[in-house]
Design a protein that fits this description.
Layout: E1 8-9, E2 12-13, H1 16-21, E3 33-37, H2 42-53, E4 57-64, H3 71-85, E5 88-93, H4 102-113, H5 130-135
Parallel strand pairs: 3-4, 4-5
Antiparallel strand pairs: 1-2
Helix pairs in contact: 2-3
Length: 138
Amino acid sequence: MTILPGVQSGGRQWPRQTGALLPRCSFPAPGSAVVCAVSGGADSLAMLALAVASGCHAHAVYVDHGLRQLSGHDGDVVHAGADKLGASFEAVSVNVGPGPDLEARARKARYEVLPAGTLVGHTADDPACAPWVAAGVN
């Protein structure tokens, strides 16, 4: 499926930028099922939208680490986004064990519940994401 700026596809009118971004993506063939880890941030929501625009049957998974009081709100944002895009949705809660380096422990807990091959969105110019992008972790 080729998406062109301003063209309706899959019953949706996609933003103009979609046509420019899709050629830079490497999603599986249209009709393929994909699991997308979606945090509620712009990067992962954009990845979910692009997966759907590419013709994939996307399933959004929100992982709630329970580390912030309002983390449930993020899950609501992901659920609403998935519904709007026509993707299925699942929220999974994890327990982040004690110890040093909270970010690493949260990442470990998250990847333990996500199925192999889950798509994740990382921003190359974000210092926290740059090592993952450089390593080709997607």
